[in-house]
Amino acid sequence: MLTQRSRYALRAMLYLAQAPAGGPPVPMTRIAQEANVPRKFLELILADLREAGLLVSQRGKMGGYVLARRAHLISLGDIIRVIEGPLALVPCVSRTAYRRCLDCKSEADCAIRHAMMRVRDETARILDGTSLADATVEDLAVA
């Protein structure tokens, strides 16, 4: 399951994706209010997303946040990896943080590993194939 932190990050990024391209930065207080994210959590989340290159921040009275790339170039997978780390449910199938499972006799014969590899691949396919732009269009279609 996604952590609450990831859900907050997704809501904040989806809100920013709906801001006009080239528009002024969106203040953190407005993001917190509109995305329904507690400000204390949001501050840390936005800092992580900024450090990962998904957001740009501007200080000062007219400051705030904007997406670092257009919404169609940022996937839900990008956001979740920044907040959660690898998408894999077990370390032996992770592409970015591989670790051998200590209790596994043989990776080649491990049924759990094979199943989790399929789960990882399908999860990555869906999350990496869904951009913020896709998600906001789907969101608007449902409303």
From TrEMBL:
Task: Tell me the Gene3D superfamilies matching this sequence.
Answer: Winged helix-like DNA-binding domain superfamily/Winged helix DNA-binding domain
The record, for SUPFAM superfamilies, names: Winged helix' DNA-binding domain
Keyword annotations for this protein? DNA-binding
Q: What GO MF annotations does this protein's record show?
A: DNA binding; DNA-binding transcription factor activity
Q: Name one Pfam family in it.
A: Rrf2
- Source superkingdom: Bacteria
Q: Does the keyword Oxidoreductase apply?
A: no
Q: Does the keyword Cytoplasm apply?
A: no
A single GO cellular-component term from the record reads: cytosol
Q: Which residues form a coiled coil?
A: none
Provide the protein name: Rrf2 family protein
